[in-house]
Amino acid sequence: MPQSFKRRLFGASVAATALLSTGLVFAQAGQTVRIAFIDPLSGPFANVGQNQLKGWQFSAEQFNKKNAAGVKFEIVAFDNKGSPQESLTVLKAAMDQGIRYVTQGNGSGAAGAISDAVTKHNERNPGKEVVYLNYAAVDPDLTNSKCSFWHFRLDADTSMKMEALTSFMKDQADIKNVYLINQNYAHGHQVSRYFKDTIARKRPDIKIVGDDLHPLGQVKDFAPFVAKIKAAGADSIVTGNWGQDLALLVKAAKDAGLNANFYTYYAGVSGTPTALASGVGGKVRQVGILDNSMPGTVRTWQTEYKAKFNDDWYTGQTYNGIAMLAAGMAAAKSVDPVAVAKAMSGIKFMGFNGEVEMRRADHQLQQPMVISEWRKADAKNPYSVENTGFNFAAVKAIPSFVASTPTSCQMKRP
Questions:
Q1: How far is C-alpha 247 from the chain's CA centre?
Q2: 266 φ, ψ (degrees, to nearest 5)
Q3: In terms of C-beta density within 10 A (0-12 exposed, 13-18 middle, 19 or more buried), how is residue 230 classed?
Q4: At what angle do helices 317-332 and 337-344 cross, to 10 degrees?
Q5: H or E element: which one contains 254?
């Protein structure tokens, strides 16, 4: 064998070995990337978890038709029963199955446990790293004091949503007396605190006439809370409640004839729209990243999802999560979690509502938001949420920079 050929062969072998040692295993067209979905699929919030599992599966199916990386996405479901402890058990089960990407969203307690466990696992197990996509747990600490390189938040956090919500509320002259009612866990505490801080800055004349916290998923009758709200003379209610806890609150308000406006984070989540359709005394408004009057991708996906599941696609983060993963894998030319995480840190990509950015400093997605209002469906906005004949229509668009909040994250990068 000629020496020149031996040198070329040796050089190619060294180069290939070096490439493999960096973990940059190039993604091949059609390669399957499994994502573990960890959320409540049983218990009081099962209807929410089941809807969002279908949302992730639907998004994967849509992107499997075509995506920048040319890979296939598969969603593998794990029931954490809404428990941080159970989340750790099923996270280990997912990792034991070789799954390298996980997503979770319902409950900041579970999110904190998963983020911490993933970070420690990655430190102890080089070559077996895992990436965590947080699609709905909105405790600001997760991208501030507890930030992790391996954690990427797809939703706006509590402080961002509150900046957006109060930027709308400050211009509503009819708001004078506000009652706060929230679930007694991290998110509920944050909603209460951030509302008081931001409204004092924007509308110091508004009075806080009540501030209640109640057990998560345990209250069966909200009548006593509604009686307190009525007695306090509240014209507006601000709540971060979701699922059963918001649906039952709305029902109790209707039964008591409460004439107050609701300002919510999650009125569009499974179960609450049906409660709203039976009537409520005041207007119901929601802050979020998606509404039912958005044209283009959102309208198409909502229509197709409804036709397939007779349910509502309301978690836009499932679109952005798959879109970001595909963009990151295409940029990294790899499905390796380390390479993909590095590529996604600071990445700009096309979300369902235009270009968005995963901020490099803390891995908090920067994106526009919207204030929407519960209204009867019409020719302009015909979509029917939970087949009620009503929907959430946009009343104010909030640009990314309005709701963006600073971060104290001191990220440790690999």
A1: 19
A2: -135, 35
A3: middle
A4: 110
A5: helix 244-255
Q: Look at residue 139 and give its three-state secondary structure.
A: coil
User: Could you give the C-alpha distances from 346 to 132, 197, 272, 358, 361, in angstroms and in order?
Assistant: 16, 29, 35, 5, 8
Beta bridge partners of 48: none
DSSP character string of 2-60: -HHHHHHHHHHHHHHHHHHHTT-----TT-EEEEEEEE-SSSTTHHHHHHHHHHHHHHH
H-type helices in 66-206, by residue range? 84-96, 108-124, 158-169, 186-202
Question: Cα separation of 126 and 123, whole Å?
Answer: 7
**In the prediction, which pLDDT does 186 show?**
87
Q: How far apart are CA 29 and CA 26, in angstroms?
A: 10
pLDDT higher than threshold 50 for residue 324: yes
Q: At 296, is the secondary structure helix, strand, or coil?
A: coil
Q: What is the pLDDT of residue 11?
A: 41
Amino acid identity of residue 35, one-letter, is I
Which amino acid is residue 159, in one-letter code?
A: S
Q: Whole-model pTM? A: 0.89
Give the angle subtended at the CA of 314 by the CAs of 86 and 247, to the nearest 5°.
Answer: 70
Residue for token pair 């405790």: 139
Q: What is the pLDDT of residues 169-187, one digit of tens each?
A: 999 999 999 999 999 988 9
Q: Which residue has the tokens 């979770």?
A: 104
Local structure of 366: helix, strand or coil: strand
Q: Is 193 exposed, middle or buried (0-12, 13-18, 19+ CB in 10 A)?
A: middle
Residue 270: count of CB within 10 angstroms of its CB: 23
Cα dihedral sign, 137-140-145-147: positive
Partnered with residue 153 across adjacent β-strands are 134, 364
SS3 269: coil
Q: Which amino acid is at 347?
A: I
Mean pLDDT along residues 200-220: 97
Instruction: Give the SS3 label for residue 214.
Output: strand
